[in-house]
């Protein structure tokens, strides 16, 4: 599954590798990779692989799950489609409380004690998804874990997950994507080492120009 999803994401440019011309993230970090998993929603064949894959992860790792909760905004559609496949209720968690109406942060019915799986599209440093986990726990939910499309596997994210006592299962990851990209000719084989160096320490730009 990891290789199939990696090929899917590369084929539609949802993950785009450009080590020779790095992208600049909002934080100012130079990155050889750009990821936009929203593109999967407009590619039906890829979308089908992803949603069935997410459903498989939920069945395999979280068989006791009662509710899916998407992250706002990228995880909402994936939680909805996966919830449909599993015949499970779903909702989503806003990045902050609404400033009108009931001022909800969690949208959809959630009872205290319900077993929840969070659906996320991408995990890098893990900050935003852990905020969602914390909000659900504060509302009384039992968060079983996270399913996601893609994870970088950055140490900061791994440390945050461990500290928050939450587990993530992804359809694919940065290491698999770089290997598949080299095999499929998206990048040169010698670029793999540079990409892994970036993943291991994003703030160290010594990989650029190697």
Task: Give a written overview of the molecule.
The chain is an alpha/beta fold and 210 residues long. The chain has 7 helices and 10 strands. Helices cover 40% and strands 22% of the residues. The protein has a 6-stranded mixed sheet, sandwiched between helices. A two-stranded antiparallel sheet has the order 1-4. The mean pLDDT is 92.
In terms of topology, how is this protein built?
Blueprint: H1 2-11, E1 15-17, E2 23-24, E3 30-31, E4 33-35, H2 44-61, E5 67-71, H3 74-86, E6 90-93, E7 106-107, E8 115-123, H4 127-138, E9 142-151, H5 155-164, E10 168-173, H6 174-184, H7 191-200
Parallel strand pairs: 5-6, 5-8, 8-9, 9-10
Antiparallel strand pairs: 1-4, 2-3, 6-7
Short note summarizing the structure:
The protein has helices at 2-11, 44-61, 74-86, 127-138, 155-164, 174-184, 191-200, and strands at 15-17, 23-24, 30-31, 33-35, 67-71, 90-93, 106-107, 115-123, 142-151, 168-173.
Task: State the helicity in percent bands.
Answer: 40-55%
Q: What is the number of beta strands?
A: 10
User: Pairing-aware structural class of the strands and helices?
Assistant: alpha/beta
Task: Determine the strand fraction and express it as a percent band.
Answer: 15-25%
Oligomer: single chain
Number of helices: 7
How big is the Rg? 17 Å
Low-confidence sequence ranges:
none
Q: Please give the order of strands in the largest beta sheet.
A: 7-6-5-8-9-10
Series of secondary-structure elements, N-terminal to C-terminal:
HEEEEHEHEEEHEHEHH
What profile does the largest beta sheet have? 6 strands, mixed
Q: Rough shape?
A: globular
Spatial gap, N to C terminus: 32 Å
Average of pLDDT: 92
């Amino acid at each position: 599954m990891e290789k199939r999803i990696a090929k899917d994401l590369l084929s539609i440019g949802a993950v785009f590798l450009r080590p020779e011309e790095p992208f600049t993230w909002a934080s100012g970090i130079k990155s050889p990779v750009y990821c936009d998993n929203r593109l999967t929603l407009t590619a039906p064949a890829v979308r089908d692989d992803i949603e069935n894959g997410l459903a498989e992860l939920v069945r395999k790792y979280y068989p006791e799950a009662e509710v899916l909760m998407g992250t706002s905004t990228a995880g909402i559609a994936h939680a909805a489609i996966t919830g449909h496949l599993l015949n499970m209720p779903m909702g989503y968690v806003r990045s902050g409380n609404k400033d009108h109406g009931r001022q909800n942060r969690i949208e959809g019915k959630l009872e205290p004690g319900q077993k929840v799986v969070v659906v996320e599209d991408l995990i890098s440093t893990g900050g935003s998804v852990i905020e969602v986990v914390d909000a659900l726990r504060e509302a009384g939910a039992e968060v079983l874990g996270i399913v996601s499309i893609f994870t970088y596997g950055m140490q900061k994210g791994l440390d945050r997950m461990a500290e928050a006592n939450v587990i993530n299962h992804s359809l694919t990851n940065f290491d698999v994507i770089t290997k598949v990209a080299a095999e499929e000719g998206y990048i040169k084989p010698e670029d793999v080492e540079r990409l892994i160096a970036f993943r291991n320490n994003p703030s160290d730009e010594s990989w650029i120009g190697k």
